[in-house]
Amino acid sequence: MSQHSLSPLSSLFRRKSIAADVGDAGLKRVLGPLSLVALGVGCTIGAGLFSLTGVAAGNNAGPAVTLAYLVAAIACGFAGLCYSELAGMIPIAGSAYSYAYVTMGELVAWIIGWDLVLEYAVGAATVSVSWSGYINSLLAGWGIHLPARLVASPFETVHLPDGTLTTGVANLPAAFILMAVSALLIRGTSESAKVNAVIVTIKLLVIAAFIAFGISYIETANYHPFIPPNTGTFGQFGLSGIMRAAGTVFFAYVGFDALSTAAQETRNPKRDMPIGILGSLAICTLVYVSFSLVLTGIVNYRAMAFDPAPVATAVDRTHIAWLQVAIKLGILCGFTSVLLVLLLGQSRVFFAMARDGLLPSLFSRTHPRFGTPWLSNLFFMVLTSLLAAFLPIAELGHMTSIGTLLAFIIVCVGVLVLRKQAPEAERRFRVPGGPVFPILGVVSCLGMMVSLDGLTWVRLLVWLVIGLGVYFGYGRRHSRLGKA
């Protein structure tokens, strides 16, 4: 159907065919199933585990934060099955954005793509600030002290060695790690995957050591009550607290969403993407449940509400000096691998949107030697570095959870839509149970979205309104599908 025969309203929902853009896009197919599992684990186990476990336990769920991880994992399992089916059918870069373009049309695809920009970019900037805090702590333990004003944003108060109170200048370590990871990604996906595999191995060994050595320091009294009674406020303990904690720690499961953006760099995406997605989800769930159970057994959940580093507190109680250093190194490895996959996913979503004409074409150019979307990488290197260096973005980190949940809902709905639109299309992997699991995925993710606080919803809506302005001002007029 030509663009001129479409009404203005129906043109907003024009869809791409399943076969569109599956061919050569200039990206090198270098990833196998083990690399994909490592990428998924690399992005998933990191900021969420080390930063959010204590927050969710102390403020929302108590020791039942373990159940919150299971609730989130179940919802992720439903969504992961749906991602696996769509990644096999539509093995192109762009993740939920590309799936939405095929199933629900251009406007919905733009909304989810714009949502993913926020999810990945703000998530990467937030994680880099945490990375900066831990590297500063590790170096201080070795007698190396970085200038206080150069590890904080201008909006943060810092204490100088002479006791003076002043404000920061820029968080340079946070900007440095973002630049370093971006440079690695520009160098090549294969090289990035190899570095990530080493980091993930170190990280898992450190977590295993924490669990193994921490078990003997568990005080069973810390598990009582396992589900603290609700305080009378929604989300503060009780069953509602578990649901809010699940929504909070959902940020910890962002990995396989970012993983699916690499479908066009996978050697056999129809076979390998389901292995990567479901394999990494299974490993991460086992790690999260075990880690949170040990952590809440060592440190009482009431103390975690006021402790910015409960993992460090727990390790200190073991009095094992080498483990204290190893945990900090493991946390740094965790944050680094999360940054790598978030920035990988971000650049691939931008790459896909630019190829469709919704963003300037320069973002779809690949490096002639490395075969990576290097201009997208450079753009987000600058953007995220500036955010991390100069803005107090910790609060915006909550946006990543609601953004991920929205993406998961779109993907689950997309599976149902394609079952109607293209029932005969090849499905190398098919979600079992007919429509049951996709519907359960929508319901469970929507339940966690509703449990999040109102301010998070306001931020999401404001960001989407800005995005609609960009779409109607540029994207709709330059859409490649609209010009076809």
Can you offer a commentary on this structure?
By secondary structure, the protein is mainly α. The protein has one domain (31-478): Amino acid/polyamine transporter I (Up-down Bundle). The chain has 18 helices and two strands. The chain has helices at residues 33-44, 47-61, 65-89, 96-103, 106-141, 172-187, 189-214, 238-249, 255-259, 269-298, 301-304, 310-316, 321-355, 374-390, 399-421, 436-451, 454-478, 480-483; strands at residues 157-159, 165-167. It has a two-stranded antiparallel sheet with strand order 1-2. The chain is globular, with a radius of gyration of 22 Å. It is a multi-pass membrane protein.
